[in-house]
Amino acid sequence: MNYEAPPWLPGGQLQTIWPALYSRRVMGEPVHYRRERWITPDADFIDVDWLQAAPGSPLLVMFHGLEGSSGSHYAQAFADFARTHGFSFAVPHFRGCSGTLNRGPRAYHSGDFEEIDWILQRLHQQHQGALVAVGISLGGNALLRWAEEMGEQATRVVNALASVSAPLDLAASGAAIGRGFNRQVYTRLFLNTMKPKALKKLAQHPGLFKAETLHAARDLYAFDNVFTAPLHGFKNTQDYWARASAKPHLHHIRVPTLVLNARNDPFVPAWSLPRPQEVGRQVTLWQPAHGGHVGFPKGAIPGHVHAMPEAVGHWLASHIPTPLHT
Q1: Which residue numbers are catalytic?
Q2: What percentage of the chain reaches a pLDDT higher than 90?
Q3: Are residues 132 and 174 in the same domain?
Q4: What CA–CA distance (Å, rounded) separates 315 from 321?
Q5: pTM summary value
Q6: Residues 70 and 131 both lie in one domain
């Protein structure tokens, strides 16, 4: 991706915050989704938001980031790309992220490839055209973990994959978001929604964890230690971050895969990014100098966030037989 940030928006922090709050997400009419509720194999549910194109059109599936949804700035921009180019578009929400608390104790996490597998297998079975998927941040890491676990079998389900701003080394990203400006802004922002959800989950399932320990959590490391890790079968945060990180297993991927990370991402240190010799031949690395975390703004003030979805969308489209509608 040959990306250059606009001169009026310098630095990774501004290239992260401004696009999420102020830049244009869609170029045409507002995005209006149709929602489906799917019952999961463990008798819980997820909500999937849809934009439907013509029968037989390729399907673009997007897995959102931490505390994201189909309303996130990047989701709306990808939806706009999809409808402009004749794709159907689906956003499966991780449990608890669609606006309704799910029933069971299970939530979601950065290595949630089992949930990704169930979703993609179902979409593959019910969709007649080509299928491509993109994961954003946490969703990108989880999608890569799925491709790594599936190996050659992934090629029977999807034509191509992409991850954007994924924290491929969770320990490195966890340390980065846990200090300085990141801790004061992003960590607080995430915990402001994650803690209330966890406490509602405790009310649903008494004894799940100790409320006082959760209240004392001041960073994602502590939150994951009391909630995310034990709830999803990990010993502790270190075990979770080690086993869920996609970076050590990128050489196992057998489906065409794009991995996009800006080198000035505040959450993902440039030194932690994979090098070409650390990935398989089906993996393409894009590591532009600028872009922030899921930002990549372009244009005059207030800017827009279409540069990244256009670049990623066209890369994915190059791996499917159905031509783009222009």
Answers
A1: 137, 265, 293
A2: 95
A3: no
A4: 13
A5: 0.96
A6: yes
120 within a domain of the structure (yes/no) = yes
Boundary of a domain, candidates 179, 213, 244: 244
- The verdict on residue 324 lying in a domain is no
In this prediction, residue 298 carries a pLDDT of 97
Same domain, 127 and 205: no
The per-residue pLDDT for range 66-105, each reduced to its tens digit, is 999 999 999 999 999 999 999 999 999 999 999 999 999 9
C-alpha 138/C-alpha 268 separation (Å) is 11
Q: Around Cβ 252, how many Cβ atoms within 10 Å?
A: 20
Whether the predicted pLDDT of 263 surpasses 70: yes
Q: What is the 3-state secondary structure (H, E, C) of the chain?
A: CCCCCCCCCCCHHHHHHHHHHCCECCCCCCCCCEEEEEECCCCCEEEEEEECCCCCCCEEEEECCCCCCCCCHHHHHHHHHHHHCCCEEEEECCCCCCCCCCCCCCCCCCCCHHHHHHHHHHHHHHCCCCEEEEEECHHHHHHHHHHHHHHHHHHHCCCEEEEECCCCCHHHHHHHHCCHHHHHHHHHHHHHHHHHHHHHHHHHCCCCCCHHHHHHCCCHHHHHHHHHHHHCCCCCHHHHHHHHCCHHHHHHCCCCEEEECCCCCCCCCHHHCCCHHHCCCCEEEECCCCCCCCCCCECCCCCECCHHHHHHHHHHHCCCCCCCCC
Domain that holds residue 132: 12-167+246-317
At CA 183, angle to CA 179 and CA 189, rounded to 5? 165
Residue 5 in any domain: the answer is no
Strand order in the sheet with 283-286: 34-39, 45-51, 88-92, 59-63, 131-136, 160-164, 257-260, 283-286
Q: How far is CA 113 from CA 63, 144, 172, in A?
A: 11, 8, 20
Q: Pairing state of beta strands 45-51 and 88-92?
A: antiparallel
**Across the chain, what does the average pLDDT equal?**
96
Within-domain flag for 212: yes
